[in-house]
């Protein structure tokens, strides 16, 4: 249900992101996922639990797409590759925390053994809701909305370094303007039939479409959701040992 919710959200992400901007789309997604976390923690039936997973899945693409874009558009050019790489690598930080929490709660005999990890999903969203208003908006989005003065002020504050800082900011601002103008020009002539008009375009479209599919079907989902059953098949059935293996495997993935 989580993956289904994420898949159903994808068509709406570009429109909502362009309308609200990077920051407020992240805030809206965080509010939506906070509701999902509360719904999951308070579930009393299987249907309610599955619905909460769908809600969480529907909200996550809005946050991920805009957070990664905001990092790339705010980061200084020299640091952009490192910052965007850390964004993906930081997934393991949350995964390690989640594995550690479940290691601490799996022995509980009440429903709080799974309600506590479910409820703690609220924490990252709460942090984003609290701190995102203090984060600058994407200069690229501001320029696309004809708010160039605000965009230039942000670029000057965060990207103006050294003696040639002002010149660098002017060039960067002009480059963003030029790129957006070119994208608008191409958007007016683009039709979806173009993606299948000839073999090279069909091949590009197919490659782009299957990247996400094979990313999820490379085995990570199998290990994430069915690790306990896999370990049971090889003769490991002690719950404490299983939780230790899951936590250790997550830490190894981070390394």
N- and C-termini, Cα separation: 30 Å
What value does the Rg take, in angstroms?
Answer: 22 Å
Helix % is: over 70%
Sheet with most strands? none
Low-confidence segments, given as residue ranges, are none
Mean pLDDT: 84
Number of helices: 14
**CATH domain fold name of the largest domain:** Growth Hormone, Chain: A
Q: Let me know the CATH homologous superfamily of the largest domain.
A: MFS general substrate transporter like domains
Order of helices and strands: HHHHHHHHHHHHHH
Q: Count the beta strands.
A: 0
Report what the structure shows.
With 255 residues, the protein is mainly α. It folds into two domains: 1-134, MFS general substrate transporter like domains (Growth Hormone, Chain: A); 136-187, GTP Cyclohydrolase I, Chain A, domain 1. The chain has 14 helices and no strands. The protein has helices at residues 2-9, 13-20, 22-41, 46-74, 80-89, 91-105, 112-120, 122-131, 139-144, 148-159, 165-189, 199-216, 220-233, 239-254. α3 (22-41) runs antiparallel to α4 (46-74), α6 (91-105) packs antiparallel against α7 and α6 runs antiparallel to α14.
Quick structural summary:
The protein is built from 14 helices and no strands.
Describe the secondary-structure layout.
Elements: H1 2-9, H2 13-20, H3 22-41, H4 46-74, H5 80-89, H6 91-105, H7 112-120, H8 122-131, H9 139-144, H10 148-159, H11 165-189, H12 199-216, H13 220-233, H14 239-254
Which key features would you list for this structure?
single chain, 255 residues, mainly alpha, Growth Hormone, Chain: A, GTP Cyclohydrolase I, Chain A, domain 1, 2 domains, 14 helices, globular
